[in-house]
Amino acid sequence: MLTGARPGFGNRISHSHRRTSRRFDPNIQSKRYWLASEGRHVRLRLSAKGIKTVDTLGVEAAVARIRARGVKV
C-alpha cells in the first residue's frame, strides 16, 4: 500500500542452462497500527521495506501518503 511493491520477473536457470519464467514476489505482511488521530486501529498490507518506512516516518504520515495515492484505509 505504501511503496507500491509489485512482483519482479526473471528466469529460472537449470543445471543444463535451460531458462523458464519465474516470479519474484515482494515480502508482503499484514500489520495493524494504532491511528491516534482517529482513535482506531488500521490494518495495512505492507512490504518489509514499507514496515521500515512506517517506523521512520510515523504512522500518521504513512497513512497520509497512502491516502494521497488514492487507497482507502
UniProtKB/TrEMBL annotation:
Q: Does the keyword Ribosomal protein apply?
A: yes
Instruction: Return the Pfam families for the record.
Output: Ribosomal_L28
Task: List the Gene Ontology MF annotations in alphabetical order.
Answer: structural constituent of ribosome
* One Gene Ontology term from the biological process aspect of the record: translation
What are the start and end residues of every segment in region (Disordered)? 1-22
Q: Which GO terms describe its cellular component?
A: ribonucleoprotein complex; ribosome
Q: Which UniProt keywords apply?
A: Ribonucleoprotein, Ribosomal protein
Q: Which domain of life is it from?
A: Bacteria
Signal sequence, start to end: none
Q: Does the keyword Ribonucleoprotein apply?
A: yes
Q: Which family does it belong to?
A: Belongs to the bacterial ribosomal protein bL28 family.
What's the name of the protein?
A: Large ribosomal subunit protein bL28
Q: Which organism is it from?
A: Streptomyces avermitilis
**What is this organism's lineage?**
Bacteria, Bacillati, Actinomycetota, Actinomycetes, Kitasatosporales
Annotated gene: rpmB2
